[in-house]
Amino acid sequence: MENVKRDGNFYYTVLPDGTASIQGAEDWPEVLIIPETVGGLTVTEIGVGAFDADEVAQKLLLTDGPVPIEQLSAKITDIEIELKVKERLKEVHLPETIKRIKVGAFFENMYLAHINFPAGLEIIEEQAFCNVACDRFIIPKTTIIEKESPEDEIWDYYAAFEGCEGAEFIFI
After folding, report:
1. Which residue has better confidence, 161 or 54?
2. Chain-centroid distance, C-alpha 146
3. Is 76 inside any structural domain?
4. Looking at the DSSP assignment, which residues form a beta bridge with residue 124?
5. CATH classification of the domain holding 132
6. Is residue 140 a part of any domain in this protein?
């Protein structure tokens, strides 16, 4: 990604309107607090795949494809690394300045059990919260939730909350 900057723990890009889009973080604590500003700019967006646990885990893997018996222990290490990444993030605090959560922003964070949605949130894109552990989402009723087709549920394939069909969705 071009022109990625860093402020403290967070990576960001500058959007055309002069606000910031969070692109990730150096460290992922169990409780992730997204700041209202980075680099002096208001944070209005969580970028594509910013906290995509599946993608981060893939970057950390040591081997690909079929594994010869002599490399089996390395593959087990890969699986352990992948699980540690996917199980790390448990809670996310978003500032009231967030307007958009992009595609796959929190994809495959399997232990993510709590996230707040700011009152001014305008859109949650496809697979933003795919396969997260939240059992309840409280979302502003004006928020657009992307899905593949209008008749789909918000948890269907390629919808914003894919894999979260057992969760309670409350629109306020």
Report:
1. 161
2. 15
3. no
4. 101, 145
5. 3.80.10.10
6. yes
Beta 41-46 vs 37-38: how paired, if at all? antiparallel
Maximal CA-CA distance, the chain: 56
Query: For residue 17, is it left (φ>0), alpha (ψ between -120 and 50) or beta?
Result: alpha
| Cα separations in angstroms, 55 against 27, 48, 104 | 15, 11, 10
* pLDDT tens, residue by residue, 2-54: 699 999 999 999 999 999 999 988 887 889 999 999 999 999 999 999 988 76
Is-contact 141 170, C-beta < 8 A?
no
Angstrom distance (rounded) from CA 165 to CA 14: 34
CA distance 17 to 92: 25
Predicted pLDDT at 14: 97
Q: Which of 161, 112, 171, 113 is nearest to 139 (CA)?
A: 171
* Count of domains observed in the chain: 1
What torsion, rounded to 10 degrees, do the Cα atoms 24, 29, 33, 34 define?
A: 0
Q: Residue 166's domain spans which residues? A: 5-51+89-171
What global pTM score does this model have?
0.83
Helix H or strand E segment including 14:
strand 10-14
Tell me the percentage of the chain whose pLDDT exceeds 70: 80
Looking at residue 156, its amino acid is: D
Rounded distance between C-alpha atoms, residue 55 and residue 14, angstroms: 23
Kindly state whether residue 71 falls inside one of the protein's structural domains.
Answer: no
